[in-house]
Specification:
Layout (H helix, E strand, L loop, with lengths): L7 H10 L7 H26 L4 E5 L5 E3 H15 L4 E6 L17 E9 L10 E9 L9 H4 L8 E7 L3 E6 L4 E7 L4 E6 L10 E3 L10 H10 L11 E2 L5 H11 L2 E4 L15 H14 L3 E3 L20 E4 L1 H14 L1
Parallel strand pairs: 3-4, 10-11, 10-12
Antiparallel strand pairs: 1-2, 4-5, 5-6, 6-7, 7-8, 8-9, 12-14, 13-14
The chain binds 2,5-anhydro-1,6-di-O-phosphono-D-mannitol and magnesium ion (MG).
Length: about 350
């Protein structure tokens, strides 16, 4: 079946028409994100040519070396969104505190948490990287949002998504009505609907994790990984390992091909008891997407990450996400261990 040719703007508009009371503010915000994505994509694609790759010298709030493109993506997202009149406050993985809008910016009713360039340690090797975003409604009373607006449980997200800068640039998002993917046609500079209503396969044949940390994981996670390496009853082969180390790329593959992605808790390292990935910028938005695509996403205790009420902007949480049947097997191992 051929997909109807539709730009992302037309798709957003058609979706908005389903809600007669919609003001268009939310649609405009999504459009601004798509424009920011194009600007970042353009820069990511020509980065090697301009010789701007490499270490920028600063460290971000997690003590990690920031790459030049992280900084560019962070500022681009802020610049493209803050004057749209749709936002009250923002939070970025690259900024310690919430980001208040410029004094002369029109304020709106939404809040965005974003990771401007996830997987940036891969940039120099030309590996796919991505931008992740999560949108909430403003809850606080005043017109300028507060940190509480950013610290909402993931179940209150009104949209989440990512942009993957890969062999093609794609924007994949959900507003709670399925997951839709748009591929950037560089010749006309438009995102075109290429993957409507993405459904993650019920079961996959890939597992995706940093297996070097196996000795640090709890017994149930270790047993689960051992099990995946035994012959699967349906395929008579073990699962294959696929790990890029760039979450957006690993999740994108998992969404399309099925399988399971894990970033578990590190039981031995007191500095990383909750794994590496951040609740606000990575775990919440990706869990919402995976669940909307018919998959499952849980935290290290088997609970829904979208129920977690964040207490700080940069808190981390384990995530296990992917095909429903594969995550259910993980949950069985977790139950057996307790
Ligand atoms: P970043 O936000 O600093 O780029 O780090 C997040 C990335 C994810 O994209 C990826 O899943 C993970 O770090 C890989 O971590 P590790 O190297 O520990 O496997
Ligand atoms: Mg990140």
């Amino acid at each position: 079946m051929q997909t109807k040719l539709m730009t992302i703007s037309r798709f957003i508009y058609e979706e908005q028409r389903k809600y007669p009371n919609a003001t268009g503010e939310f649609s405009d915000l999504l459009e601004d994100i798509a424009i920011a994505a194009k600007v970042i994509s353009h820069q990511v694609n020509k980065a090697g040519l301009l010789g701007i790759l490499g270490i920028y010298g600063n460290h971000n709030v997690h003590g990690e070396v920031q790459q030049k493109l992280d900084v560019f993506a962070h500022h681009t997202f802020i610049k493209m969104l803050e004057h749209g009149g749709h936002l009250a406050v923002m939070a970025s993985e690259e900024s310690e505190e919430v980001i208040h809008l410029a004094d002369d910016a029109n304020l709106g009713n939404y809040v965005i948490n974003f990771d401007p360039l996830d997987g940036s340690s891969n940039i120099d090797a030309n590996v796919s990287v991505g931008t992740i975003f999560s949108i909430h409604r403003k809850r606080s009373k005043g017109s300028r949002g507060t940190i509480e607006d950013c610290l909402q449980a993931g179940k209150y997200q009104v949209a989440s998504g990512y942009i993957i800068y890969g062999s093609s640039t794609m924007m994949v998002y959900t507003t709670g009505n399925g997951v839709h993917g748009f591929t950037l046609d560089p010749s006309v500079g438009e995102f075109l609907l290429s993957h409507p209503y993405i459904q993650i396969p019920k079961k996959g044949k890939y597992y995706s994790c940093n297996e070097a940390y196996y000795p640090y994981w709890d017994k149930s996670t270790q047993s689960f990984i051992n099990y995946l390496k035994e012959n699967d009853v349906t395929t008579n082969r073990p699962y294959s390992l696929r790990y890029i180390g760039s979450m957006v790329a690993d999740i994108h593959r998992t969404l399309l091909y099925g399988g399971i992605f894990l970033y578990p808790a590190d039981t031995l390292d007191p500095k990383k008891p909750d794994g590496k990935l951040r609740l606000l910028y990575e775990v919440s938005p990706i869990s919402f997407l995976i669940q909307q695509a018919g998959g499952l996403a849980v935290d290290g205790k088997g609970n829904d990450p979208l129920e977690i009420v964040p207490t700080s902007l940069h808190q981390r949480t384990p995530i296990i996400a992917g095909s429903k049947e594969d995550v259910e097997v993980y949950l069985n191992f977790l139950r057996d261990a307790n």
